Amino acid sequence: MAVEHPVTAPSGDQTRIHNIGYRSYDGPRLGRAYARRSLYSQSLRGAYGLGRSVKSKVLPMLLFVVICVPAAIMVAVAVATKAKELPVDYTRYAIIMQAVISLYVASQAPQSVSRDLRFKTVPLYFSRPIETADYVRAKFAALASALFVLTAAPLLVLYVGALLAKLDFADQTEGFGQGLVSVALLSLLFAGIGLVIASATPRRGFGIAAVIAVLTISYGAVSTLQAIAEAQNSTGSIAWIGLFSPVTLVDGVQSAFLGATSAFPGGIGPTNGEGVVYVLVLLGLIAASYGLLIRRYRKVGL
Amino acid sequence: MTTLSIDHVSRWFGNVVAVNDVTMTIGPGVTGLLGPNGAGKSTLINMMGGFLAPSTGTVTLDGQPVWRNEDIYRHIGVVPEREAMYDFLTGREFVVANAELHGLGAKAAQKALATVEMEYAQDRKIATYSKGMRQRVKMASALVHDPSLLLLDEPFNGMDPRQRMQLMDLLRRMGDEGRTVLFSSHILEEVEQLAWHIEVVVAGRHAASGDFRKIRRLMTDRPHRYLVRSSDDRALAAALIADPSTSGIEVDLAEGALRVQAVDFGRFTTLLPKVARDHGIRLLTVSPSDESLESVFSYLVAA
Amino acid sequence: MYDPTVARLTYRALLGKRRALILGALPLLLIAISVVVRGLAGADDQTASDLLGGLALATMVPIIGVIAGTGAIGPEIDDGSVVYLLSKPLKRPTIIFTKLIVAIAVTMVFSALPTLIAGFILNGNGQQIAVAYTVAALVSSIAYAALFLLLGTVSRHAVVFGLVYALVWEALFGSLVPGARTLSVQQWSLAVAHKVAGGDLVTSDVGLTTATVLLVAVTVLATWYAGQKLRTLTLAGEE
Fold first, then answer.
1. Residue B65: helix, strand or coil by DSSP?
2. The whole model's pTM is what?
3. Which chain A residue's Cα is nearest to B252?
4. Which of C88, C92, C229, C233 should be substituted to probe chain B, the one whose Cβ sees the most B Cβ atoms within 10 Å?
5. How many structural domains is chain A composed of?
6. Which of A242, C77, C112, C177 sits between 20 and 30 A of A299, alpha carbons compared?
7. Residue in C40, C44, C158 nearest the CB of A229
8. Can you tell me which family this protein belongs to (chain B) (predicted)?
């Protein structure tokens, strides 16, 4: 191999690189709030597959349709038979449709957070003006909003249909309002739990499986125990058992304070005192999920 | 068990042809499989290792097929590119497990670990290893059963210069012992320093094989370039350009030399000393300036 | 047919800290619930049978089967470290069979043992219920481990599919749709339990002979097919 002699520059030359093209950006920057809003809207749209591939639109849209169709049918039946009342209370609808809601959370919570974890792009977020809290708030709010859309849409269908069927306005509006509060709490709770579980693993499949497992098993265990308690006539404990699963927790709160009829066996909902505990546990879980998420994302690094 | 034959092998994935009618024979010694990223090197190595079936063609080791033939692994050692190993094991446990899967014992494992100089860290979990240490443990696991064919997929990835030198020494030793060592790389310096014989794969096709200097000679459609320094450059230039074997001469004032483009390599090499003697010019430096692997490679890739 | 090194590697991978925690959570939950129920209701045979059938056999055993079965091979294929098993002069069916043994053993320990304990807590093995359900758990462990090992070998989303099967098919359809019950591992194992318990508390929709044949057939076929699939497993580059 030849050894080349180094090139010697002619003397008296000054080496320079001229600044002819690179321009830094000096214009207005939109700041943290804008970034947070953008992350929120992108996550929210992503939860319904908007802005993503066609395949990812199928499941959320399908679930949305599935949850709205029975409401539409009920409304049609009520109008046709000139019924005095809707067959199902506003507050009961979400409880009946809990499988659809669980499936939605299970599929969209991992979709929202696990890609960032798997491909280690989270540090890219945090090397920009947004903070950990912004990221968590945006994702939490987005999933909760998506769930709220999912659960409130059928209630809207029921409300509009009820008005069309000329049912009592004040009555229906009150029921609708109660239903909305209830599903708002449900959305926050499910979003929190779903995100905490999904952010524990970078693998989407595990996240989906874990969320389904936790939601289903907790509900299965609680309802089995409640059935046994009822069969054994120790009805006092039915309300306490209901604290241990997200769906029954929401059910308890709404039957204590939102005028719903309890879905617990024997129709025995929590008393006012127990209801307060329910509310505290519900809010506590939401706050705990938020706290856990913040802790989780503080530990993320390169 | 030392000759790997790849015979008219193609592999496609749907519409994408990853390997296109490649035929080559890999014999004892160190062979470098060279190619840009996405050229099909990994696909080829996976086929050589029996982890992927060719869509057409056959891959055989001394006549025995490699696909769906578990016994052939007695003679093949594989160092995969992917980093994942059993992270929860210590280095020693990992190599011992590999030895046991070959029907060997802890002694063979110890020997292999000594060969790659990983004894000092053998009792730490693999999860705590650096990239270079992982590569060496992978090497140990491939060597533990003394295979006659070693396949290494991008083995120098992530190694620091000292580890790279050590690995090169090790591979050279393996080649000298008569084993067949095939490694893939897209880093030319590594291949240049280590391989006796290179196989160049570009866009799935087998572009060239052999010693890279000889490959350069075969490329007659590109003029050979030389750097010549002499006692009288201009006179030499005038004499050389008169002959049809040169196609261009550049006087490089900065270098103080001539850059000669020779289209007829053979004729030029006899011409140059004769011309110099006839004109009484003393030749100081004559060196080929594009016989590096890099230039050979860029010609092949650009073709 | 059985390789101790493969078994050791599989066992250590399966019972790594995180997976062991998850595997242990469900049995603990079952036992906790059993204690609560015993406290609430006293010893009652019907309750015990319902709980063991509904919670243990229908939910816990399939989920443990999914985790152990897919976990015995899925992560290795996913991150590519299975190459270290495939590049050895080892018959692929041997690898599958060894992993199956480990998966079965883990499933049995984490599902049958807690079922026995829960059964004794619930009604002290009155009418042989605890033992019957434990036998059912043992038997279904084998079939589940084989099925989910196969799933882990062929599919990258084995955990999701497995859980859908376990929670939707077994727990939901299996209890609701009569036709589906003949195709349910749970019902087959209940047939065996029925034989052990005698009496009427433990029932199954499937006869004993049919159940045994199906259990054996499913296990053997799944294991054989997984072995064949592993022979032609393609290792692509980094994805």
1. strand
2. 0.79
3. A7
4. C88
5. 1
6. C77
7. C40
8. Belongs to the ABC transporter superfamily.
